[in-house]
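In practice, a research group might receive sequence data for several interacting partners and want a quick structural hypothesis before committing to experiments. The following worked case mirrors that situation: the sequences arrive first, and a predicted assembly follows.
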Amino acid sequence: MVLLESIGQAVMLIARGDAEVWRVTAVSIEVSLLALVLAILVGLPAGYAVAIARRPIASVGSWALHTLTALPTVVVGLTLYFAFSAAGPLGWMDLLYTRTAMVAGQFVLALPILAAITLTAVRHLPSEAHETAITLGLTPYRRMRLLLREARPALVSGGLIAFARIFTELGAAVILGGNIRGHTRTLTTVIALEYSKGDDVRAIAMGLILLIVALGINAFVHGAGLWRAAERT
Amino acid sequence: MTPIEAIDLVVGYQAKAVAEVGSFRIAADRVTAVTGPNGSGKTTLLKTLAGLLAPVAGRIAPQLRAGAEGAVFVHSTPYLFAGAARLNVQLTSRGDDETARNALRTLGVEQLWNDDVRRLSTGQRQRVAIARALAAVPRLLLIDEPEGGLDAEGISSWRRIVEEAVSTRHLSIVIATHQLSALEGLPLNVVRLRGDLV
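A structural hypothesis for the assembly, expressed as tokens:
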């Protein structure tokens, strides 16, 4: 019954164009997309660098990146909280309880996922792909771009997994953002808030909206052909 | 042009020797053919000459860099990067479409310019890969067992390229092959690998 009621309320909230829902959804998307873009910019080159490195960097790097994918969100939130707090080393930046702090937390969560998936995808390209990129005399930067392009299907999948991880996380968002209405309140923090207030129906309704947004983003990625399998020889 | 010399060369992977090749010279006006049974180290030798592998012992003088004015290696089953054939050739033509088109034309596959590499036949892929290597304008072109993927037309155009290369392009060519007969009539140096190290 609770589920049916929640679905009904989710539909009503969307149909009504509830301002609070739109605001919370927009903040969630803005923070997660920005964190994802930053994590892509750093994670793909980092994963590639480890993939083409020699031992022991390659094995230690792989071990470290895959271990960091299991970072608990609360631990990331707390660590950055202490870093950004007034007495912390980054306290001078005055970022605590801002969206920027939330982006930083989600960036830390997404980075190892993207780097680890890039590492695996690049390492498992055929050896002929690596050798061809070298023998054609391409610069290291062009080689990286070319081989990352070859690994595109796995990287798009990695991007979606990383986005799912940070879009649905609560620990870092609530610790670093503080769940400030109209400012740092996101879909996950509002779910936790409604649950703590005992409004299970609204909490689940917001959860359904979160799922719908995730569905929409996945549909966009598929529709745009970003997941199209790369050609192979 | 100074010939490329292999001196007391032993090739292999990391420290493990695959073939004791010895010394030989790669002259610009001749085709160097590398023959030997399966597993005798033909591919390993070509990859070493291309700089993709370090010699286990001995040396290559001069050791060319990869790409333009250096050495380019073409696999027996070439890897083409995703997209149209032109994208592959443009990788090495440095944005010069005329060079890219000329390279494809030389191999008789200019009509594949916009074709998706996934839809190419084995022979077409081989020719696009060789065109890609030629577009880099290397000094040394190393081709691993090209006859496997080439059809009759491909072998014919391939012979034309080799003839043209040795006479006008000042391009040194090394070919690993099981079929010396396919190179009959060309000025040849032959490096025979015995395969007794593997």
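Before designing any experiment, note the following. The two ends of chain B are 35 Å apart (CA to CA). The interface with chain A takes residues 47, 50-52, 65-68, 70-73, 75, 77-83, 91-92, 116-118, 125, 132-133, 136 of chain B (CB under 8 Å).
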